[in-house]
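Good day; I would like, with your permission, to put a structural problem before you. What I wish to show you is a protein chain and, alongside it, a tokenised description of its three-dimensional fold. Please examine both parts with care and let me know of anything in them that strikes you as inconsistent. Thank you for your consideration; the sequence and its tokens are set out here:

***
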Amino acid sequence: MCRYTTEKKLKDASPLVAPCGSQQRRAMELFIGTFLAGLTVLVAVAFYYEHSKAKVPHGFSQRQKLYFFHYTLNFTLGLAKFLEKVGIISEVSFLRTAMEGIPPLKDKHLLIKDLSFERVPVRIYQPKASTTGRRRGLVFFHGGGGQFGSIRAYERMCCYFARKSNSVVVCVGYRLAPEHPHPAQFEDCLSATIHFMKTAEDYGADPSRIVICGDSSGGTLTAAVAQALVNRRDLPKLRAQILIYPLVQYVDFELPSYQQNKGILAFSKERILILSLNYLNKDLSLMEAILKGCHIPEDLQLKYQKWVSPDYIPHEFKKRGYKPRTTHPFSKELYTLVKPLFDLAFSPLLAEDSVIAQLPETFLLTCEFDVLRDDGLLYKKRLEDHGIKVTWCHLQEGFHGIIFLASLGEVTAFRSGNKGLEKIVDFLRLM
């Protein structure tokens, strides 16, 4: 809930600009006019440049709207970098502030509380309507590359899930990098989930009907938490996991979807690695060698190719173009520096078969125009190979972030995103 305060202005307050002579005033006006004109030209040029290089697929039914969001996101990212360069505010702080600017949502149908689970801040959304039994529980982990996103930014999505599926929703405000390095994010999500599983009845939720869910990096955390819980005999089993365009591997950045979907809404394999290396506090100069696959020892390459290979991507997803990956020499030094990328909290696709076989029923959402599409397809295959029931929703006109945009309202929503939200709710209602 936002509070606004007003302060009485003092009559004798100093003016914003000190009095000056007419020549100084004219010079100042000329400077401001020139600055604004230059800024307008720069913005116009930037718009043309971003508009012309935006790779919006032919046949996309809402092309102009996608162009607009592509430009807006690129402009915001560029502004964040510029402000950091001139020493005004760090890029991370600026982007966090921008996300915090999303207006909160008041929902008269929900009771909303801020609490702490094992010192982890959470916000609980409980439907006010009476019910004869206990509701399902949904634990939600927001996206943002482990560095952005918050309970506030995802409030609209959580309200939507609580209201439409009649669920008790818990949004986890896990700690963010770089202030809190890996694995703080995973540990917070796991701790909050375990606490809720033990106390679900206190919030009107059924412990046997708890679902965990996340989008993007939140989807990665969801998969990792589900894996961490498979051998916990002191807890009820998770009813299901919902993975919304998750990142599940750092082995191969030349899968078909990485090649086909560069630059849509500024989300590329380079952007993923920039976020990931910043998350681990590693130098960005390592990025090029990682993209070439120089960070994987030969023995691990042989092991991982059972699970990570373009051969497992159906032919229909290669029609838009695919070139086989070129091999490059292994760097032991690089492997030592980025070894955490193979931790299951980063790469849940690399879990052993004995873990995958015990995972709960899964809803998996992928988007055709998302670099992470094939991550989802590979994880789907692994789950199904072990007999795990998977409800797969593939958005033919989807792109990374489309579910988040749909949750914000009609202005930002795309038709495909609305469809995805509805499919998630339909799945929840069956749990």
